Each structure stands twice: as structure tokens, then as C-alpha cells.
Amino acid sequence: RPASQQNSDVFEKQMKKIIVILFVLLSVRLSAQNLYFPPNTGNTWDTLAPQSLGYCQASIDSLYNFLERNNTKAFILLKGGKIVLEKYFGLHTQNTPWQWASAGKTITSMMVGIAQQEGFLSINDTTSKYIGKGWTNCSVLQEDKITIRNQLSMTSGLDDGVADPYCTIDTCLIFKANAGTRWAYHNAPYTLLDSVIESATGQSLNTYTSLKLKNPTGMTGAFLSIGFNNTYYSTARSMARFGLLILNKGKWNGNIILSDTNYYNQMLNTSQLLNKSYGYLWWLNGKTSFMVPSSQFVFNGSICPNAPTDLVSAMGKGGQFLNIIPSQQLVWLRMGDDPTNALVPFLFNNDIWQYINRLPCSTSTVNSTNIEEALVKLFPNPCKHELYLNSHETQSKIELFTFQGQCIKSFDVITKESKIEIEDLPNAFYFIKVYFQNGQVWNGRFIKY
Fold it and tell me: Do residues 279 and 312 lie in contact, with contact meaning Cβ atoms separated by under 8 Å?
């Protein structure tokens, strides 16, 4: 072929590549521009009519009724940054502060990332570099293996089975395994990240958070010391602002809060191979397996099967939820109380997602009911005395399992409606497996309280 023709082909290929790159960049930019950010002061916040998204009023009412029955205080749903749903229950109002509980861990994670981008620390540093030697009851060699990254990913190796897992005194921080080799939801090592931040930056946690996060985004609230814990309190709208910031990858209306994209990506992706559903103090959906607090058992499947796979969540005791779905530009939160005593009430979050999925009037474009849920209806959940299972197919066998995978109850049945007495079981999180005469098998989860 003539050289001129070959050059022309090369030029054409290069132009095509450039066009593709420009299209991708333009798409990303337009996506960011489509996000709305409320003013940093005042109560003005643009809204979006639920009907514009195809939401049915009957479904909205059903969601609100469910939330009210389950001791909810505040609920907000954002689409593209605009408020679609906002509801307060009882005496709670737009201006009432409430605890984030462990959902506040995600603020700490953000502040560690900001401190790192400003050169105050590296998450690969040992924790003792900032809070001194002897902060644990471990040997010097064992303690020196614990890094800030281990604190962020819940892999400190310290024993979470001590009498008080919140205790941050050195005598409570006992060696269990080498750092990085064991995942355990342990509050004390996480709480000490606050001391790491303060030592590294030379500022109190509240001061540093105000300067670097709250003031630029209009968030309000503060960390309050309660026992060994530092618990964040704020209004629901402040939690919504934080969710919008995370949705926009650490940028607020053109203002870059977290510029370290590597840290942002690490924070919201699997942080270790032990619990694939855990990032840096964030819970991740859509992974192949997950672990739960107070257990070393690895469960197959996704932590929130009713939700989109790209969901990232801040979750805390009492049902404090901040859910972010990048693919849908969706953020929703729930504040309130929860009748169970679960440290991280996964099931409750999953239950709310059933109602979220049913908001659109058209069920043809929304998977409003999980396939497994269509096979079996399990209620009430959480449960105290009797658990009921209704199914379309005839059941043949039922098995109950503990967190650790131990089968504690097994019995044969020939029915479509079963009742299981669970009053004798300790208060905990359990798994249930139902076998059917047609060969199908259903796996479910419930909380005994």
C-alpha cells in the first residue's frame, strides 16, 4: 500500500482514539455538572418532584409507614443532589441533631485521607508513630506491625472478644493475631484513629473536621465523647451533604475536598481479602462474600441483596444508614432507633431497600422484589418469639445456623406455611435454609432479639 495511504490510516485511528477520550471526559464532566449542590448556608435546597421520577404516592406512603413503625426519626432521599423525599417523624425536625453511631466512622476515614493528602501522615505508618509506644498490651514487635491502614480496614489483630471492645486503655488492647491476618469489627482500634489524626495535625478532631470538611460543605455537627467513644451528632441534612460529597468523589461544587483519588478509590473498595465487603470503614455491596461483627465466619453472597451492586454504605447501631449509589446518582439516609441490638443492622437496611425498589410505579423496569424473597416470605424480622415462613412451593426441610455456620436446628416438614419457635435462642443474627420438594433451596437471614 502507498505510504500516504498508511499514514492516512494511522491518522484516522489516532483521531478516533482522541474522539473517544474526549467523549469520555465530556461525559464525566457533564455527569458532575448535573449534580446539584445546596448553598453552604441557609435552608434552601432544591427539590425534585417524586412524580418526575415515576414514584407512586401509594409506594411513598408505604415506605413512610414502614419507617414510622420501625422507630425512624428522619429519612431523606436525594437524586442528583436534589431532595426527592424528606420526612421527619414524631418530635424530630429538620434542625434536630441525632447520633450517627458507627456510620460516623466514615467521617473519620475521610479525615485520615485528607490528613494524608496534606502530608501529615501516611496510612502505611505504624500507629505508635503518632500515639507512642505501649498503646497496646502487645509485645513491641506485635504492636509495631499495626499500621493506620490496619485500623482503617479492621485488621489490627487485637482481640475484639475482650470484656469491653470499646475500651481504648492499653490493658484492653490484647494481641490475638498478627496485624493484617484477621478481620474483626473492633471499635477500640478505630476510635484511636482520632488520636492519630490529632497528633499528626496538631489540631483537635473537631477543629480539623470543621476546617477541612464541615465549613467547605456546609455540614454542621460535632464529635462528642461518650465513654470511650467519639460519636458524631448532626442533622439529617448534614448527613445528606456528606453523602453528596462522597457521591461526587470528594468534590463539593467545584471545591476539591479530597484530591487523593487513590485514597478515595481504596476507601470505597475492598481493603483486604478477609472481608471483601469492607473498605476503609465503609461497607460495600455486590461482593462475593462478607463478614459481620462478632463473628469470624465468611458468608457467601452480597451484604445487601435488595440493593444495587455498586452501593456503598455507612451503617451504625440503631439503624443509622447513609446509602450511596453512584450509578443512579442516588443518596438516601435514615436516622432513628432500631428494636434490635445489632452493631450493624444489615437486615434492616436490606428491608428498607425493598420499599425503595418499589417506589417507581412501573415494576417492569425495577426489580422490586428479590427472587429469593418471592420464593419465601420470612416474618417478623427481627423476631423475638416465633418466626413464620410462607412459600409458594411445598417445604421439605428447614435448617437454622449460627454466625459461625453451626447448624442448631433441623427438622423435616411438608407444608407451605411453617412456624419456628426461637424464644430459646440467644439474641443474635442467624441464617436459615429452606429445602423444597421440587429441589429448590432458599437461604435467608433473621435477627433474634
Answer: yes
Contacts of 56 (CB under 8 A, 6+ apart): 359, 360, 361
User: Within 13 A of 170's CA, how many CA atoms are on the CB side?
Assistant: 12
Dihedral angle, C-alpha 373, 375, 380, 384, nearest 10 °: -110
Measured CA to CA, the distance from residue 345 to residue 32 in angstroms comes to: 32
CA 137/CA 194 separation, integer angstroms: 19
- Tell me the mean pLDDT per 10 residues along the chain, length 449: 56 53 43 81 96 96 95 98 98 98 98 98 98 98 98 98 97 98 98 98 98 98 96 98 98 97 98 97 95 84 92 96 98 89 84 94 49 67 87 93 84 94 88 90 81
Name the residue type at position 47.
T
Residue type, 200: A
Q: What is the pTM of this model?
A: 0.81
Q: Which residues pair with 333 in a beta bridge?
A: 76, 322
At 419, the amino acid letter reads: K
DSSP 216-271: HHT---EEEEETTEEEEEE-HHHHHHHHHHHHTTTEETTEES---HHHHHHHTS--
Q: CA 251, CA 245: separation in Å to the nearest integer? A: 6
DSSP state of 298: P
Cα–Cα dist 316/336, whole Å: 10
- Read off the DSSP letter of residue 147: B
Which helix (H) or strand (E) is 320 found in, with range?
Answer: strand 320-325
Q: Quick one: CA torsion of 345, 348, 350, 355, rounded to 10 degrees?
A: -160
> Residue 275 forms beta bridges with which residues?
none
The C-alpha cell at 14 is 489516532
**Inter-residue contact 181 to 226 (CB < 8 Å):** no
Q: What is the pLDDT of residue 370?
A: 42
Q: Where are the alpha helices (DSSP H) in 248-294?
A: 261-267
